[in-house]
Specification:
InterPro entries: ICL/PEPM, Isocitrate_lyase_ph_CS, Pyrv/PenolPyrv_kinase-like_dom, Pyrv_kinase-like_dom_sf. This protein has a single domain (42-284), classed as TIM Barrel, CATH 3.20.20.60. 42% of the residues lie in helices and 15% in strands. The protein has helices spanning 42-52, 65-74, 83-91, 101-112, 132-145, 172-188, 202-205, 207-219, 233-243, 263-269, 281-298, 309-315, 318-327; strands spanning 2-4, 11-13, 16-18, 24-26, 29-31, 57-62, 79-81, 121-124, 149-152, 194-199, 224-227, 248-251, 273-276. A hairpin with a 5-residue loop joins strand 3 and strand 4 (24-26).
């Protein structure tokens, strides 16, 4: 066969003969077969999904190790670390900008490294936690944590959940400073991490200002756009059209400020990524509350048969731990688990 030399216009003919034992000859020289497996890190995997497919990347919102493990068990191809869920689970507080870089980065790092070559993780980065220097530090720490993508927004530092009233945003120049600092940092570190520009300006300034801000962020090199808090399906569909072919992310919060949009509808509208921020948090609240109410009234939680400690531990990688110990020659599990 012929192989083109990419460094010049010349070409060379190479004859490869494959033998039955798996060995092969290259121009008469016998070679031992080798197999090289290149495992894609999360950022590169997410970037390829955006570039090479037209599929809607659906990311359930996870907020801790267990919720992330369950999402992986179900088979999702990507995950989203919610800032609201991180604040609620780690601090026991409402999403009012109280979680800072340390809280968010350490949580994201734990989730992303449950399986470093598994589903890529998109993580909330709020406002970047300060001026350009803090934005740069935040991006660098997210990259080293193994995060695949992040969104950074234009709310003031004293921010709040995107589905609460009373949001305020910085002026467009300050917002673009954040985007520029994030872009310069990821480029300096030669990272594939996906930069998602988010705007929360709809409440305060209206739709046209949101499109203006997202177009400016796109022009600075942001990879994906996120307009938070759509008031109608028509508005969501219009945003995709107004920013095409730039990929947009849809944050779906059921019982939030906007309409309920299904994954099928989002795909038809042209969105490329869809996150469900409260997909784990709200059901966890209902399940925990119901079990504790039964404990208080009936003296027992009423957990279904078969859902014992071992099942939970299996979801959290019990058998992988057993395999690692056994393969290394350890005896920690010789009597079973």
């Amino acid at each position: 066969m012929k192989v083109e030399d990419s460094s010049s216009n010349s070409s060379m003919a190479i004859t490869i003969t494959v033998e039955k034992d798996g060995f092969y000859e290259v121009n008469g020289t016998r070679q031992e077969p080798t197999v090289s497996l290149h495992m894609l890190a999360g950022a590169s995997k997410l970037r390829r999904q955006l570039r090479d497919t037209n599929e809607l990347i659906v990311c359930p919102g996870v907020y801790d190790g267990l919720s992330a493990r369950v999402a992986m068990e179900v088979g999702f191809k990507a995950l989203y670390m919610t800032g609201a869920g991180t604040t609620a689970s780690r601090l026991g507080m409402a999403d009012l900008g109280l979680a800072q870089l340390y809280d968010m980065r350490t949580n994201a790092e734990m989730i992303a490294n449950l399986d470093p070559y598994g589903p890529p993780l998109i993580a909330d980065m709020d406002t970047g936690y300060g001026g350009p220097l803090m934005v740069s530090k935040s991006v660098q720490q997210y990259i080293s944590a193994g995060v695949a993508g992040f969104h950074i927004e234009d709310q003031i530092q004293n921010k709040r959940c995107g589905h609460l009233a009373g949001k305020r945003v910085v002026d467009i120049e300050e917002y673009l400073t954040r985007i520029r600092a994030a872009k310069l940092t990821k480029d300096r570190l030669h990272s594939d991490i996906v930069l998602i520009a988010r705007t929360d300006a709809l409440q305060q300034h209206g739709y046209d200002e949101c499109i203006k801000r997202l177009k400016a962020a796109r022009d600075l090199g942001a990879d994906v756009g996120l307009l938070e808090g759509f008031t109608s399906k028509e508005q969501a569909r219009q945003a995709v059209q107004d920013l095409a072919p730039w990929p947009l992310l849809l944050n779906m919060v059921e019982n939030g400020a906007g309409p309920v949009i299904t994954t099928k509808e989002a795909q038809q509208m042209g969105f490329r990524i869809m996150i469900f921020s409260f997909a784990s948090l709200a059901p966890a609240y209902l399940g925990i509350k119901g079990a504790l109410e039964r404990l208080k009234t009936d003296g027992i939680t009423g957990i279904p048969d078969g859902l014992g400690p071992k099942k939970i531990f299996e979801v959290c990688g019990l058998m992988d731990s057993v395999r690692i110990d056994t393969d290394a020659g350890g005896s920690g599990f010789k009597n079973g688990v």
